[in-house]
Structures are given as structure tokens and as C-alpha cells.
Specification:
Elements (H helix, E strand, L loop, with lengths): L9 H6 L1 E3 L18 H15 L5 H9 L2 H8 L14 H10 L2 H9 L7 H4 L2 H28 L7 H9 L3 H23 L9 H25 L8 H7 L1 E3 L23
Antiparallel strand pairs: 1-2
Helix pairs in contact: 4-11, 8-10, 8-11, 9-10
């Protein structure tokens, strides 16, 4: 019998383990690569962002720096220059999540820097399948890892784990497994599309190969960043990745925080 997604007791919340499926390590052909400029740009990036004074306190800025956005960029663009450095949910549910994350508008745009690919090539159905499926895989991995923190902040309503629990009437770990299966199906679609990318002739073809390779690498980069940064798992990312589980934080325990933006994750709660 599945447990209703919104009704565990406080005692159950404190002892529940969240299963973290490995969606990428053994199945995705792109290995982890980190730009040679990472150690250099890390400090420069942090100093520049701090100078903007966007957040409302030092603690929030510290939490943002723990998120290591420059790590994501250096994993996502390992060869860039320093300067560049079954059952289904309702379709609109994933569409909403897809449009909420920043990958498509920011990091994906970086893939086109230095390339001169015509718009009709980028919008070709096969390329669009690869773009959408890579984005979806990053969405799935991000929501798997971020669910614990988001439910602790009372902000998990748009997380795909919450949506799957509600739509399929399953529990949290049932939703984790369902999303992991969906991730595998999406991997297959991406890899199948890559085998049938059309030919336009040079110099377009070599640029399209670079762009498509970048899409595949971003899936790996996002997965690695989820564990290597401290955005969602604090300092316990490597440990959680190895053991494939973490403790569920008390529901809404961070909901009353007056801080807007990232928060520093207490590793003792995980």
C-alpha cells in the first residue's frame, strides 16, 4: 500500500530514506570533463557576482556561492575558452517544468557561441528532439536531487517527484523509480535521434556535431554538478551519490525562513 505523498507523520519524516537512483553513471556515453580554467575563474566569478549585491544578506550570498554556478559552466563547456567558460503524465506538466529551468535560455545558448548554424538547422525536428530530451533529462536529475530541499522549504509543488506522486498515487520512492525509468526512455530517444541527424554539408555538419555533442555533455555536466556543488546536498553530495540515499528532511522545516534565494543546507539533516 502506497503512502499518500502529503501525509507522513513527523516521526516517519525524520526516519524516511529517499532513494537516489543513478540515472547517468553507467548508461550515458559522455564522461565527466572539467574545464582547465575552473580553478582560475572560480574566484573571479564569485567576486564579480558579490559585487552586484543582488541578495539581501551575506548568508544568502554564501549559499549562492556554495551552488558553484561556475562549476556548472566549466563542466558544461569543458573545452570552451576562459571567457565563454508505459504510463504518462499530462504533457503540460513536463512542459511547465521545462520552461521553468534556466538551462535552455542560458547554458544551451552558450553552446551556439562560436558556431554559425542556420536557424532552419537548429529547428530541424531531429535537432529539436535532441534539445528537448537533453533538457528533460537535466530536469529529471535536478528534480530528483532538489526534491528534499524543496519540500523542506514548502516549495516542491512544481517538482516532478511531487507531480508523479499526485498523478500516479504513489509514494516518494515510487516516484523516484518512475522518474528514473522515464529518464532511461528519454536517453534512448536522444541517442536514437543522434544516429539520424541529417547531413547539410560542410561547414554546417561539423558544427552540428559539436552542438549535439554539447547537448549530450550538458546532461552529464548537470548530473555531476548536482552532487559536486553544495546547492541541494550541502557537503554530503559525494557521500549521498555513493550510498544512493539520504534522509528526508522534516516537511516545511525551512518554510519560515525569511531568506530569499539559495539556502545553506545543514548536512546533519541528510
Amino acid at each position: 500500500m502506497s503512502v499518500p505523498y502529503d501525509s507522513p507523520t513527523a516521526g516517519e519524516l525524520a526516519s524516511t530514506k529517499i532513494f537516489i537512483p543513478d540515472t547517468v553513471t553507467s548508461t550515458w556515453p559522455w564522461p565527466r570533463h572539467l574545464s582547465q580554467y575552473y580553478s582560475e575563474v572560480m574566484g573571479e566569478s564569485a567576486a564579480w557576482f558579490a559585487s552586484l549585491k543582488i541578495f539581501n544578506g551575506a548568508r544568502v550570498l554564501d549559499a549562492f556561492e556554495c551552488s558553484c554556478p561556475e562549476l556548472a559552466a566549466c563542466l558544461g563547456h569543458p573545452i570552451a575558452s576562459k571567457g565563454a567558460c508505459s504510463q504518462r503524465l499530462r504533457p503540460n506538466e513536463i512542459d511547465v517544468r521545462r520552461n521553468m529551468i534556466t538551462m535552455k535560455t542560458f547554458f544551451f545558448a552558450l553552446l551556439e557561441l562560436g558556431l554559425d548554424i542556420p536557424g532552419e538547422v537548429i529547428s530541424h525536428p531531429t535537432i529539436e528532439i535532441m534539445t528537448t530530451t537533453s533538457l528533460d533529462m537535466m530536469l529529471f536529475d535536478n528534480d530528483i536531487i532538489s526534491y528534499n530541499l524543496e519540500q523542506a522549504r514548502g516549495d516542491a509543488s512544481h517538482n516532478i517527484i511531487t507531480i508523479v506522486m499526485r498523478e500516479l498515487d504513489t509514494d516518494m520512492n515510487g516516484a523516484m523509480l518512475w522518474v528514473a525509468d522515464l529518464h532511461m526512455e528519454t536517453q534512448k530517444k536522444f541517442l536514437e535521434a543522434m544516429t539520424v541527424v541529417p547531413k547539410w554539408g560542410e561547414p554546417i555538419d561539423s558544427q552540428v556535431r559539436e552542438y549535439c555533442d554539447g547537448l549530450g555533455n550538458w546532461v552529464r555536466a548537470n548530473y555531476e554538478w548536482n552532487f559536486e556543488s553544495e546547492r541541494y546536498l550541502g557537503t554530503k553530495g559525494p557521500e549521498i551519490r555513493s550510498q544512493k540515499w539520504m534522509l528526508l528532511m522534516p516537511k516545511d522545516c525551512l518554510k519560515d525562513s525569511k531568506e530569499i534565494g539559495p539556502v545553506i543546507v545543514d548536512p546533519s539533516l541528510l
